[in-house]
Every structure is written in structure tokens, then in C-alpha cells.
Amino acid sequence: MGKLLVEDKTIATPGEKLAEGMDFLPDEGTFREKDKILAAGLGLVSINGRLIKVIPVSGRYLPNRGDVIIGKITDILMSGWTIDINSSYNAILSVKEATDFIRRDADLTKYYDIGDYIITKIVMVTSQCLVDVSMKGPGVRKLTGGRVIKVNAHKVPRIIGKRGSMVSMIKNATECNIIVGQNGVVWINGSPENEIIVINTIRKIEQEAHISGLTERIREFLEKTTKKKIEIVKVE
Amino acid sequence: MAYTKRNDGRKFDETRPIEAKVGVIKRADGSAYFKIGKTIAYAAVYGPRELYPRFLKNPEGSMLRCHYNMMPFSSVGDRVRPGANRRAKEIAMVTDKSLLPVVELGNFPNSVVDVFIELPQTDAGTRCAGICAASMALADAGIPMKGMVAAVSIGRVDDKLVVDLDYSEESYEGGTVADIPMAVVSTTEEISLLQMDGEISKEQLKTAVEMAKQACSKIDKIQRDALKKKYEVKNE
């Protein structure tokens, strides 16, 4: 009979023994060594029936197909742009994926210039981590104005909240436009004072993401800083 | 004159007091602080990130690049000339090799993981302290790892075997001294670093290896506790 050696939702350190016996199966972030299952990195243990998984809590963003991210144009190529996506690798936006039609001899800076920020979608990631992004489809566009901050990409789900409840609460409280990229880049646009409040709130979420009762604490924090009555957004 | 009592009153198999912290450098992807007695090591990890010069790129995985630096004011004697010298380069190389058995860099083609080890204060055992700090910092940076590495130096002072020499023991003049830094992979008890200067008998070396394994398992626990302390879920 197999034996579980750790509890669900605790932190596992690299090489830590998670379970003994063949009853449990190693999922992402774990590996089997003879009859034991060990953690393959630092992360949060998640047990789902017989499957044991370790979800990373730190580290750089790993590009995934389908992710909507915020990137910065860093270079212009012969037929596209290089984009910094706050990851270990750069992404390429090719002319074909930029808009409907761009002439061969066109000046590409007219579309996106170096230093511009864009919301974009990852369409392909190869085995060698070459990343292709596209500006076609809903929600993707060039960003103008506002300001950009970077957060730990693994905390993005907590900033967004369940079905976007957390980010809508901050939006309502501060009347700012906020876009959270899956890669941990956040774009904020509003009045300067409110932008600062948003940044402070996001930093607080980042720091306290692992403590339970997060939404309530953030609501109190926002009420204190904006001096307004704020309700937690209920998303059906 | 035999060595019957250690200069600082420790037991022969006792390390100096250890202090370990994770996440001490804000802008690094992962960082750690490791203090053993009067020796202090900071490690900062950046990456995986793009590797330059380009000819070093390996399409089959990432490169681990360690740097070792003693700060100018770190030693008890003369000012240490900063920058890489022959000794620092060698220590950086052995640090690299002692950590390689645990890190799994196959998923990050063409990139590099940089590890910077800085020593603001030294009292012997710097490469061991550096390896301990680097191992924690790599885990903190979310690098996939099969286990962790702990390191300690075992020495022979006159006729006695001692764990974790300090500078006064390393420069003991009443008899023969040998200094053997060793690094042990926690999960498999593999030895990933073994150097020596001085002289020792075959039997004593065998005992020394066993002593190192015991001491490293204690250090390993301290390292893991430090990592868990940073990330553990707190329920209020």
C-alpha cells in the first residue's frame, strides 16, 4: 500500500519525497525514483486522486500557445518585429500576422515602433522555444498611454481572481483601465493618483497571494486608500 | 601538542552556527543568503535568459554559469583585489560542476542560468557556503531541480578529523592540516565536489566522507526550512 508523505497545498522543495509505493502517479513537476515520487522543483503540492503534481511558485514566464500577453517591441526585422515578452525568450511578430496587408517596401515603424507596448496572442511555441505572436483576433491591440509594471507571472491568476473578480473590483474602485497579461506584465491607465493606488494594490496581492482571505483584505485596503465603499464583485 | 579541543569550543563533528534566508535580492529571479559562523555568502540567480556570446549557445539545453567573488573588504588580512583571479575562476568552475547533477536545464534551449556568488565576509569554507547559497537560490528561481546540494568542509587538524574548519583551524601550526571541501546531493547522497589540500590517510578520508554526509544532511534541512519559510501558505 502506498503512503502519502505530504499534505495537499503545502510547499515541496526540490527532491523532497512526496509519496511511497506504486499507488500514486507522478504528474507535472514530479518524477519517480524506484518506488518513490519526488518533487522536481520548488512548488505547491496538488493532489488529485492518485496524481501528484507540483505547481511552480516562482521563476520566469514560460510561453504557452493561446496566452494573451503584453509585450514590448525591442527590434525591427526585415519582415517583422522582435518582442520582449518578460520571459526567457523573445517573440517574433511577423508582418503577415500584424494587420491585413503591408506592402513589401513599407516602413514598419509606422505600424509598431521600438518601445511600443502591445497586447498580443501567442500562436505558436516550437520545441526550441521560438515564439510566434499574432495581432489578429479580438482584444489584441497597440497600447497607448498608461503605465506598465511587471509582476511574478505565477501570481497572475490571483491578480485576476475567480473569473476576473479581483481585477474588476480594482477597476471599479479606481476607475482605471487595467489589462493583465499572462506573462506578468500589467498595463494600467487612469488618473495618475489612481494608477499609483492600482500599483500598490497589485504589489500587495503579489506579496500576500498565499495567505487566505485575500479578496476581503484587498477590499479593505482599497476602501482605506480610495475612501469609497467597495463591494466584492460577484461574477455569476 | 595534540589538537584536543577546538579553538572555538565546538564538538569535533559540529558545524558553526548556520543562518539561511531566501529571497534577499529583490531584482534577482532567485536569491539566497547563507551564513556559517563568520562566513557569509549571497547568491543571486538570473535566468534562464538569452545567452551571449552566441557561439556558446546549446540548442539542447541551458548552460549553468557560476561566478564567485570575494568582496575587497571580506578577508581578515589584506584587501582582496576584486574581479576574477585564478582562484575565483577555479572555484566558480567547481561550483558549477557541483550543482550540475541536480539542475534540469533540458527545457531551456539556447539560454543561460547565471549564478552570482558574493562573499562580503569570509572565515574559511567560502566555496561550501557559496554552493549552499547557490543551491537555495536556484530553487528560489524556480529552476527545475532533482534535489538540492549541501556542502561542508571536513578537515584534519593534527590527529583529529573536524567538521567545518574555520580560518584558525585551517592555518593551525601545531601539526599537519588537511582541508577537504565536499558537496553532497541530498536525495542520492552522491558526492559532487571533493577537493583537498594537505595530507590525509586513506582510512581517515573514508571517515571524513561519512562525516560530510552527516553534516550535509543537517545543512540540507536548514536549506529546505528556509525555502519553505518564504512560500508556506499561512492561514490566519
Protein architecture, described:
The complex is a heterodimer of chains A (about 240) and B (about 240). Chain A is of the alpha+beta class. Helix content of chain A is about 20%, strand content about 35%. The N and C termini of chain A lie far apart (about 45 Å). The model of chain A has no long low-confidence stretch (mean pLDDT about 90). In chain B, the strands form 2 sheets. A 5-stranded mixed sheet of chain B has the order 1-2-3-5-4. In chain B, strands 6, 7, 8, 9 and 10 form a 5-stranded antiparallel sheet that branches. Chain B has a single domain, classed as 2-Layer Sandwich (Ribosomal Protein S5, domain 2). Chain B contains 4 helices and 10 strands. The chains are: A alpha+beta (about 240), B alpha+beta (about 240). Chains A and B meet through loops of A and strand 3 and helix 4 of B.
Please write out the topology.
The complex is a heterodimer of chains A (236) and B (236).
Chain A: E1 3-4, E2 11-12, E3 17-20, E4 25-26, E5 30-33, E6 36-39, E7 43-48, E8 51-56, E9 68-77, E10 80-84, E11 90-94, H1 95-98, E12 117-125, E13 131-134, E14 141-143, E15 147-150, H2 156-160, H3 165-174, E16 177-180, E17 185-189, H4 192-208, H5 214-226
Parallel strand pairs in A: 4-8, 11-13
Antiparallel strand pairs in A: 1-3, 2-7, 3-6, 5-6, 7-8, 9-10, 9-12, 10-11, 12-13, 12-14, 15-17, 16-17
Chain B: E1 18-22, E2 30-36, E3 39-50, E4 63-70, H1 86-99, E5 111-121, H2 126-140, E6 149-157, E7 160-163, H3 167-170, E8 177-185, E9 191-194, E10 197-198, H4 202-231
Parallel strand pairs in B: 4-5
Antiparallel strand pairs in B: 1-2, 2-3, 3-5, 6-7, 6-8, 8-9, 8-10
Helix pairs in contact in B: 1-2, 2-4
Order of helices and strands of chain B: EEEEHEHEEHEEEH
Per the CATH scheme, the topology name of chain B is Ribosomal Protein S5, domain 2
CATH architecture annotation name of chain B: 2-Layer Sandwich
CATH H-level homologous superfamily name of chain B: GHMP Kinase, N-terminal domain
Structural class of chain A: alpha+beta
Number of spatially distinct domains of chain A? 3
**Overall pLDDT level of chain A:** 92
Enumerate how many helices of chain B there are, as a single number: 4
Shape of chain A: flat
Radius of gyration of chain B, rounded?
A: 18 Å
Largest sheet of chain A, order of strands side by side?
Answer: 9-10-11-13-12
Helix content of chain B: 25-40%
CATH superfamily of the largest domain in chain A: K Homology domain, type 1
Strand order of the largest sheet of chain B: 1-2-3-5-4
> First CA to last CA of chain A: what distance?
43 Å
Strand content of chain A is 25-35%
The CATH architecture of the largest domain in chain A comes to 2-Layer Sandwich
